[in-house]
Amino acid sequence: MQNFYWRWQFKTAPYRFVAPFFILFVVFVFLPFVFSIYLSFTNWHGEEVKTFVGLDNYKTLLTNREFWQSLLNSIIIFVLYVPVMLLLALIFASCLSSSWMKWTGFFRTVFFIPNITSVVAISFVFLLIFNSTGILNQVLMNAGVIHEPIPFLETPWWARISVSVLVVFRWTGYNMILLLGGMQSISKSLYEAAEVDGASGIKSFWYITLPMMKRLLAFCTVLSTLGTFSLFTEPFILTKGGPNLATTTPVMLIYKESFQNLNMGYASTISIFFFIVMMILSLMQLRLFRDND
Amino acid sequence: MRKQHKTLSIVVLLVFLLLAAVFMFPFIWMLSSSLKDKSEIFANPPIWIPDTFHWENFTQLFTERHFGNVIVNSLFTAVTGTVGALFFCSLAGFAFAKYNFRGKRLLFGLVLASLMIPMESSMVPLFIIYRDLGLIDHLWGVILPRLTSAFGIFYMRQYCMSVENELLEAARMDGCSENRIYFRIVAPILIPAFASLGIIFFVEEWNNFLWPSVILRSEDKLTIAVAIRSLQSGVRTPYNLIMSGSVISILPMLAVIFIFQKQIFAGLTEGTVKG
Fold it and tell me: Which parts pass through the membrane (chain A) (predicted)?
């Protein structure tokens, strides 16, 4: 039974099992990434010869307004939507996990639907809604709330707000589900004890739910940070990164420089910088993961 | 006190119904616009329900825009990508959970580290590699990078921990090979995990946009998200057709949420809360 073949297949099994992941990872992620580092030091537009230019691209990057603007835009959009989204998600989750709430299954599904439906589809419908002659402006004007259409997509700040509204619409349900999961793991006896002591619903939310959810909320925040910096499809369709670069994100910049302007070298430099930002953020995420255990 | 509670809960319910209406509005507007004539899209006053339903918007997508192919392409990439990723992730997750082997810690560390390289930062060279391999404008080019998922490995590893060692040992005593152990013992136990993770992968793949839009070119090779976007053209964009395409793209996802919501919610919370 314990023949040579059996021992061989037993010894190699774990390696054979992890091999597919590593082969695919090396070919489709790691090698391209290393190649990307190399390209970031060249001035390359897709032709045969790649000229080595040292740190030139990095100098351009650091002095380039577009790049800093894209980082700033991400931060602004983050500040605009994350507090609103997490607050909404927290309210949804705490109401939907309480015993007196009706139709919780229905509401949970409704709020989650935007997250699993196509970003492209949703971005296009928001384009129709936010258009200067779109439904939202028409309804507001016909109701006499405003007299001039609001330039939802045409001025920098409104464009950022519109992108933020779209992101809140898509991601509130997702965060609500994560928070619901956390709330269900809080022991019911804590709330019962609080009720016996005469604490109101709001008090037990403040003193039991919130402290227990602190880590999870931090986790959601970090996830949102990663999400904001890699935001692409929403501004790509809704605002095309404009007006005046106001909603251009780092990933949009990579896309534009590499596949539209064919500045492959410079695009790689942005990619590497983008990687560094994302790495710092993921390290924060891993730390939170570890503390959770 | 009790009465106050009751009125409060009714008020909250009403507010939630209003919010639900707000959350559903874009979908209703999408459906309404998908049945309009192009001239009715921005009509003032707004048209809520078009006088005549322009079903030809939908048929036009199939006859002129290859939407038949597009749907098949999307299904093919989503199903193949999902099945492949589940297979590879569960194999690796099983190995990390149930075997002791030299280099295990290092390899697992690499899986962790792989999380830190976002796809976007190796997009440029990957495009060059694809050009040399002839994967541009090829559906396999969409599928291949999706087959690795560090998140999937974590998830499967976590789930494999619950497989009892005695079960594996007993099978080995009977001379069962490790491959057979995976297929006959582990895989059946993992079915609920396959369901939860598989739905998440499927949804992501179906809605995937950035990379497919970079490599797919021909109209009959597109996946649905890219196909919808390809309808946008200069000044005279046919928004009614875009909305029809959007309706087609969200219908399967609505079916998914109504059938599998338990698995989706379980998958999301297990994957992140327990880490």
Answer: 21-41, 71-93, 105-130, 157-180, 216-238, 264-284
For the question of an ipTM over 0.85, the answer is yes
CB count within 10 Å of CB B24 equals 14
Say what the pLDDT of residue B275 is: 37
The CATH architecture to which B57-273 belongs is: Orthogonal Bundle (1.10)
pLDDT tens digits, one per residue of B204-261: 999 999 999 999 988 888 999 999 998 887 778 888 889 999 999 999 999 988 888 8
The reply to whether A28 touches chain B by the CB within 8 Å rule is: yes
Min Cα–Cα distance to chain A from B128, Å: 9
The single residue listed with the structure tokens 């002591």 is: A197
Which chain B residue's Cα is nearest to A103?
B13
- A with B: how many residue pairs have Cβ under 8 Å apart? 274
Domain ranges (residues) in chain B: 57-273
Q: Which of B16, B114, B243 sits opposite A25 (nearest CB)?
A: B114
Q: What is the mean pLDDT of residues B98-107?
A: 90
CB-based contact, B112 to chain A, within 8 Å:
yes
A267 CB neighbours in chain B (<8 A) are: 124
Instruction: Give the pLDDT of residue B274.
Output: 43
Q: Which residue of B has its CA nearest to A289?
A: B275
CATH number for A61-292: choose from 1.10.3720.10, 1.10.20.140, 3.40.30.10, 2.60.40.10: 1.10.3720.10
Angle at CA of residue A278, ends A272 and A283, nearest 5°? 125
Whether A219 and B272 lie within 8 Å, measured CB to CB: yes
B82-94: per-residue pLDDT in tens?
999 999 999 999 9
The sign one gets for the Cα dihedral A132, A138, A140, A143 is positive
